[in-house]
Design brief:
This protein has about 150 residues and is α/β, with parallel strands linked by helices. The protein is about 35% helix and about 20% strand. It is built from four helices and seven strands; from the N terminus they run ββαββαβαβαβ. The strands form three sheets. Strands 6-5-7 form a three-stranded parallel β-sheet, covered by helices on one side. Strands 1-2 form a two-stranded antiparallel ribbon. Strands 3-4 form a two-stranded antiparallel ribbon. Helix 2 crosses helix 3. It is globular and about 45 Å long. The N terminus is likely disordered.
Length: about 150
């Protein structure tokens, strides 16, 4: 397999062009969300849909929750660079924990809630997470304290 750095980039609209190659614009989620929050704090930033309705989060509420979760993760002993295994379903907890980990410098490891116990145990052995956040009824790696 060729080295990824050796693969040519193809021109595409919207990005900066140097030497005819596509250079995507940098995307910084924290800066983008902070700018949106300042401009429109009550605008919907996140909507999680379900069969019974939707849970909507404004930019102000989302940023406050993400910062709170980031602080909680650091207070719980996680440090920037640590891996955090996320075992959550389709609830607001999933994006909040993911963004909270990113805000704290922690590496979120996203997994499907449909993985079985043996499957997630094998994955966790390869990833070596420092901690696991799991939703009710979702399989955890063997040896994980519930």
């Amino acid at each position: 397999m060729p080295d990824a750095a050796a693969l040519p980039l193809h021109p595409a609209p919207g990005g900066r062009r140097n030497d005819g190659l596509y250079r995507p614009q940098p995307f910084q989620p924290r800066r983008t969300c902070a700018a949106r929050r300042a401009a429109t704090p009550d605008k919907v930033a996140l909507a999680v849909l379900s069969l019974t309705g939707a849970t909507r989060w404004s930019y102000a509420r989302l940023i406050a929750s993400v910062r709170g979760l980031a602080g909680w993760m650091l207070d719980a002993g996680l440090r920037p660079g640590d891996r955090l295994l996320l075992r959550l379903g389709n609830t607001p907890d999933y994006p909040l924990c993911y963004l909270g980990a990113m805000a704290a410098g922690i590496v979120p490891v996203a997994t499907s809630p449909l993985l079985t116990g043996p499957e997630i145990t094998r994955m966790a052995a390869q990833v070596s997470p420092k901690a696991v956040i799991a939703g009710e009824g979702i399989a955890c790696p063997e040896g994980c304290a519930a």
